[in-house]
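Late entry, evening session. Most of the bench is empty. Finally got around to the prediction I had been postponing all week. Sequence below, unchanged from the version circulated by S.P.
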Amino acid sequence: MSWKSQLKEKVKKYLRGYSACHDYFHHKRTLGYALEIAKKVKCDENVVYAGALLHDIGYKDNERDDKRHHIYGMEIAQKWLKEVGFPNEKIQPTLEVIRLHDNCTWGHDYESTDHIETKIIQDADRIDALGAVGIARLAYYYGEKGYPIYNPAKVKETKEVWFNHSLVDQIARDPIKKYNYLNFPISKKTAKERNKFLKQFYKHLKDELQTK
């Protein structure tokens, strides 16, 4: 069995029954978007493949410290990549993908990167946060955490991620901005209709909640 098949099975088994926001199917969709982007960008497709499958693996069992999910993910990835026979010289670049995949649009201190494979996974991950799927994932997360859909109180925006404001606020503060953070023209082309739908949904949600 190839390392790709082994790694996919590990991720699928590990995340079976896990929260729909970061489950196996999120990783599978991210992989699909990443491979489409990789067709248009010169890169190491093996690093892209592994990085896409593993980028959010660190959420599981670390929900109380999920701002550090990239750190936990790197630890799991380093072990699994060796176990499946992934090329040793490509392990470190894959760990770099996991380390910075959420940079800029999450709560981490910003660190710029020229690492192409990281930029591809950033875009693929962000695409899955847009459109109908993105809304469903975010709403699922808020319901799971017991956070409000709408809070009339104005909450100051900080580096902290969404824990002190509503779903309506978060849509404006995070996924709507993600389109502007996409790194490649192909990513923006792929996400254009999703972004349009997200903005329309946000407007309708505000109107129906009478939040104007």
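Two things to note before I forget:
The chain is about 60% helix and 0% strand.
The domain at 3-209 is CATH 1.10.3210.50 (Hypothetical protein af1432).
Will write this up properly tomorrow.
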